[in-house]
Specification:
The protein is α/β, with parallel strands linked by helices. Helices cover 17% and strands 27% of the residues. The strands form 6 sheets. Strands 15, 16, 18, 19, 21, 23, 25, 26, 28, 29 and 30 form an 11-stranded parallel β-sheet that branches. It has a 7-stranded mixed β-sheet with strand order 5-4-1-6-11-8-12. A 6-stranded parallel β-sheet has the order 14-17-20-22-24-27, with no helix packed on it.
Length: 416
Amino acid sequence: MQVVAMLMAGGAGTRLTALSDYRAKPAVPFAGKFRIIDFTLSNCVNSGIYDIAVLTQYRPHSLNTHIGIGKPWDLDRQRGGVHLRQPYLGRAASDWYRGTADAVYQNIDFILDKRADTVLVLSGDHIYKMDYLSMLAYHEKEDADLTVAVRNVPLEETDRFGIMTVDDADRVIEFTEKPPNRDKGTLASMGIYVFNTHVLLERLETMHAEMPDLDFGKHIIPSMIGQARVQAHRFDGYWVDVGTVHAYWETNLEMAQPVPPLDLYDLDWVIHTRDQERPPAKIGPQGQVSNSLISNGCVIRGAVEHSVLSPGVYVSPGAVVREAVVLDDTWIGPGALVDRAILDADVVVGPGTIVGHGDDFTPNHQQPDRLSTGITVVGERVRIPAGTSLGRNVLIHPHRSEKHFSGTEVPSGETV
């Protein structure tokens, strides 16, 4: 079996608000030193899959810089390796990617050049560890044309996923994309597909002329039900779509638990990443750290409680960081409090400032569907003046400075 992986990494991730304003969702930092895409890339190399095309589109620069030539994942190879593929204009068959399947259609040449008989389609924005070889073996054993990885999700979340209905042999008999009535069961597609190459290419060529926005969930998979052998491959391990602010915050903090649901220290399944050349983390004489992930280059002179700190974060004496996710090179001033918040990179929290104040959980007025669980989000390179108080569900857009803050208080639900 000759396998190529097509890794979708072009999503804008708009539900992550300020975190994805200047970076693609798969490039968002996670669990301190990693990026979200590291988990899918590591799954590939740990499964022995080394022919990988990463299909980028939205703000690809940080993702391109992070992946580079693929050396941290042992993907800097003369044969195989990782290939960053961006859409471009200037030829008859080129355009921006309009859907997940359209992205693969515009990169058919990669599949043909590798002479692959099997195509593994992956998403670059999920947190999980999975041996793809077991799914590939299942696909071959069942003589399937398409195999979809599935898992059960809570009933209240089924409207976020494509939901599968299967028979006793796990053959897919119905597929419903994001059912609004939650009456199609709880077996959700994980966005991981194994196609026989000839079947995929035939389907892409046939459907693309009529559907330029060709998508796997909306078009390709439903069209194959009843016409081809479509199998469901069940996965019962840890898997999270960190596509919302709450899911991102919650999943990060889960990694800081004494016994996390996903083992980041498993030497048999290493999560590879581009490491930063930083000195060791340092805990000062007044520093206190509990149930937290502290990355290299951090200096802790205050208190850090159940939080995740990316490289280079500085916590001043008297400052308290509690249930927070703090990204690279953020400076938290003396006596400041950061509570139930996400701070992007290069943020300055002035002395005595409170980020996440009070018990008023009014949803964000501009984005109530994205900020409603009390988490305050501060975008990159923000400068919060000393003595300022930010309430709950507050959104501070990137690159805001002292002049953008009127007064010393930003009430819950407001946006700067």
